[in-house]
Specification:
820 residues, Kinesin, twelve-stranded mixed β-sheet, rod-shaped, binds adenosine-5'-triphosphate
Length: 820
């Protein structure tokens, strides 16, 4: 390639000199190319010369061209030596004559060798296979040949190459018929008309010749520019290939290929630049004024490269930013998923809250409905109670009259039987027997009536009651079980030792417990023809006192209290029953204190029955559908038996509590039963309140029993008026006997089981060993608390045992009178 450029420099140098010095001088210089060529180095790379006056490198270049025709042939080496010698001679002043045709021939051969085709330039070239650079070079040579001389002296071989190239490149591009190349008669391509006329040497005028030359120049310029465009396209193709190869990573061959293509590109650029310079300096006016497209392309190419690099850098920067943004995108996606999970959780919580609020609203609606139902139920109960109150009001008076009459009759009968009783032996062992049996005993008595198969009774001492209730069979063990056919006498005989122990200073409490209508009052009071526990106890006591020395050795006082709706009333008050207040006794003494309680001092049995009948009349009773004689209050009769001490010993102060508890009943049962008979609202309300207070007081009694059984330090005696008043009877050293009344009717089995459960709990209570209360040995009986002188008809003093007669007293005849 260097030699090729050198040849081009030589050719253009020749042409430039011809243009500057005239055609003749140019021919002379062409025939003498050795002038001034000795200073050009052999291997130096020639550069395009713009100066036309420079002549130095011609000789060396020519010598080099002569040596290039056959580099591999030793003969050619010899010829080259000869040529070098001849060149040396020429440099000395006798240079060999080398024609332009020979130079062109050498150039063609050189080009053939450089292209590696192995063919000589003299051979015909295939226009389709000839490289573009070779074509362009041949075209330039044709121009040079045409410029070297007149038409007839121009070498035909050069004409052939020129015409051939013109035919190959401009056959379809130049539509002008005058410039369209044609084939000669020998099959060779022909030059344009002007150029052909110039080659033929036809005589023309000076202006016409100039016009033809100018037209030829235009044609040549167009052709050359076309070739330059093709070179540009090749250059672009090479650039694309170069870019594509640059994209390869780590390929050594590709790098080599890149370097090779880079060098070729550089050569093509230089060739383009050289060609453009030739055209600029060689052609006439229009050609000189034509801008350098190759240079512009090179600049554009450089600009594009710089833009490409900038674009690549921008791309790398954007990729880095893209990687960072992808990382941020992943983080945002993770955060988004967490937010979605949180949102789902919040949504489920809100849904649960909404459902809960809806349920609460429904619950509030149901509560309101229940309240309305309760109000309606209360109104209905009031109506039933009112009806029962009116119904029972009419019976109350008649009942009181009947009770009074029965009491009078009973007193007269007992008075007639006293002499017989006095004949019986004294029972001094009764107190000892009481201690051996235990301080609390539970007896059970069945009410006569229709008996089903739900209750099985094993009567007698240590008897059992087996109940079948709600599919379960439960057995209750009791101290004694009285069958339905047990008489009043049999029941009292079981209790008589405890009653008589009061004369020895013991404190005894006998109370009846059970469902309404099961016979509590019947067992405690009994009808006049068949008296119950209380009349028999009084009879037995007076009989015993008579046997021990007569009533003068004993002092008997009696008081009677009713607890109705938690109100304590004095049943033996001379006037209407007064309301009493139960207070705690003096600290350290235990017991209770009831200020204003009337206490009757009785001297005989008749007076005592008179007092009890008075109390029965005052007792609040209310008839119910279940038991028209049912008492709706608790009744407590207290007898204090003070024995005058013997001459050399203390006396005794015993107490007997006879308690007839109100019937335990289910409130709903009583009210619903009353509603069926149609009572007023006021009576219904009163009956409902009675039932509630009765059950509340019985529940308190159960609590006291449970605390005593568990031996708890605190016993809740203050929970009700009943337990307050029973505190002395259930305290340490006292003796208690509970008679549980049960019904054998199938419809009452539930209440029966409840009563038996309560009895079982009471039987497990430990009150401690029974203790006797003695009076000081002053010779006269007195109250245990004050030690005063016992004398009938004198005021009594409060007892430390509990119920204390205080305000009033009776005479031995039973007439009440005020304490003076
Ligand atoms: N063992 C019995 N023998 C004969 N009749 C009895 C017997 N027990 C109860 N009765 C009768 O049953 C009815 C109700 O008895 P009682 O009044 O004694 O029951 P109650 O339990 O005292 O009722 P309340 O708790 O309402 O006072 C009475 O008419 C009574 O005569």
């Amino acid at each position: 390639m260097y030699a090729f450029y050198s040849l081009l420099v030589y050719i253009f140098y020749t042409l430039f000199r011809r243009d500057g010095e005239g055609a003749a001088a140019a021919a002379a210089h062409t025939r003498d190319p050795s002038q001034g060529a000795g200073s050009l180095p052999r291997n130096s790379r020639p550069r395009p010369r713009r100066s036309r006056s420079r002549q130095g490198p011609q000789q060396d270049l020519w010598t080099e061209l002569n040596g290039l025709d056959s580099p591999s042939d030793p003969d050619s080496e010899a010829d080259r030596d000869e040529k070098q010698e001849a060149t040396a001679e020429g440099a000395a002043g006798s240079s060999p004559e080398v024609s332009l045709e020979e130079a062109i021939t050498h150039l063609a051969e050189f080009l053939s060798l450089q292209l590696g085709t192995g063919e000589s330039w003299t051979r015909s070239l295939d226009p389709d296979k000839a490289p573009l650079l070779l074509t362009l070079t041949g075209q330039l040579l044709a121009v040079v040949a045409w410029l070297q001389g007149p038409g007839e002296k121009r070498p035909p071989r050069f004409q052939h190459g020129l015409q051939h190239q013109l035919c190959g490149s401009q056959q379809t591009e130049d539509p002008a018929p005058a410039t369209t190349p044609t084939l000669s008669s020998g099959g060779q391509p022909l030059a344009p008309d002007g150029l052909r006329g110039a080659m033929r040497g036809e005589p023309k005028g000076q202006s016409q010749q100039r016009e033809e030359e100018h037209r030829d120049w235009q044609w040549l310029e167009g052709t050359t520019l076309g070739q330059i465009e093709e070179l540009k396209q090749q250059l672009a193709h090479q650039e694309e290939e170069l870019s594509r190869l640059r994209l390869g990573v780590g390929v050594t061959d590709s790098e080599k290929r890149i370097q090779h293509l880079t060098m070729e590109n550089e050569a093509l650029k230089q060739s383009l630049s050289l060609t453009r310079d030739i055209l600029l300096q060689w052609g006439p006016g229009p050609l000189v004024q034509t801008p350098s497209p190759a240079q512009e392309e090179a600049e554009v190419l450089m600009e594009l490269r710089s833009r490409l690099r900038e674009t690549e850098e921008t791309t790398e920067t954007l990729r880095a930013q893209l990687g960072v943004q992808e990382g941020q995108l992943w983080e945002l996606q993770g955060a988004l998923q967490e937010l979605q999970l949180e949102a789902a959780t919040r949504e489920s919580e809100q849904r649960s809250k909404r459902e809960l609020r809806q349920i609460l609203r429904q619950l509030a609606g149901l509560r309101g409905h229940i309240v309305a139902l309760r109000q309606g139920c209360g109104d209905l109960r009031g109506l039933v109670i009112t009806f029962i109150q009116n119904y029972q009001g009419a019976l109350k008076e008649a009942q009181g009259q009947v009770c009074w009459a029965l009491g009078e009759l009973s007193a007269s009968q007992w008075a007639r039987r006293v002499p017989e009783i006095r004949k019986k032996p004294r029972r001094a062992y009764q107190g000892r027997l009481l201690e051996l049996r235990g301080n609390i005993r539970v007896l059970c008595r069945l009410k006569p009536g229709s008996s089903g198969n739900l209750l099985n009774v094993d009567p007698g001492p240590g008897g059992t009651v087996t109940a079948n209730y709600r599919g379960r069979q439960r057995q209750f063990h009791l101290d004694r079980v009285f069958p339905p056919d047990a008489t009043q006498e049999e029941v009292f005989r079981e209790l008589e030792p405890a009653v008589l122990s009061c004369l020895q200073g013991y404190s005894v409490c006998i109370f009846t417990y059970g469902q309404t209508g099961t016979g509590k009052t019947y067992s405690m009071e009994g009808p006049p023809e068949d008296p119950g526990i209380a009349p028999r106890a009084l009879q037995s006591l007076f009989r015993e006192m008579g046997a021990q020395g007569g009533p003068r050795q004993h002092r008997v006082t009696v008081s009677m209290i009713e607890i109705y709706n938690e109100t304590v009333r004095d049943l033996l008050a001379p006037g209407p029953p007064e309301r009493l207040t139960v207070r705690q006794g003096p600290e350290g003494c235990g017991g209770i204190h009831v200020p204003g309680l009337t206490c009757w001092d009785v001297s005989d049995l008749r007076a005592l029955h008179k007092m009890l009948n008075l109390g029965r009349r005052n007792r609040a009773t209310a008839a119910t559908h279940m038991n028209e004689h049912s008492s709706r209050s608790h009744a407590l009769v207290t007898l204090t038996l003070t024995t005058a001490p013997p001459p050399h010993g203390p006396g005794t102060a015993g107490t007997l509590h006879l308690v007839d508890l109100a019937g335990s009943e289910r409130v709903w049962k009583a009210v619903t039963t009353e509603s069926s008979v149609g009572v007023g609202a006021g009576a219904r309300g009163r009956r409902l309140r009675e039932a509630q207070t009765i059950n509340r007081s019985l529940l308190a009694l159960g609590g006291v029993m449970a605390a005593l059984r568990a031996r708890q330090p605190h016993v809740p005696f203050r929970d009700s008026q009943l337990t307050r008043l029973l505190q002395p009877a259930l305290g340490p050293g006292a003796t208690a006997v509970m008679l549980v009344q049960i019904s054998s009717r199938p419809e009452d089995v539930g209440e029966t089981v409840c009563s038996l459960k309560f009895a079982e709990r009471v039987s497990q209570v430990e009150l401690g060993p029974a203790r006797r209360h003695r009076t000081p040995s002053s010779g006269t009986p007195s109250s245990p608390s004050t030690g005063g002188t016992p004398s009938l008809g004198t005021p009594t003093t409060p007892s430390s045992e509990g119920i204390s007669p205080q305000a009033e007293q009776t005479s031995s005849s039973g007439e009440p009178h005020q304490v003076s």
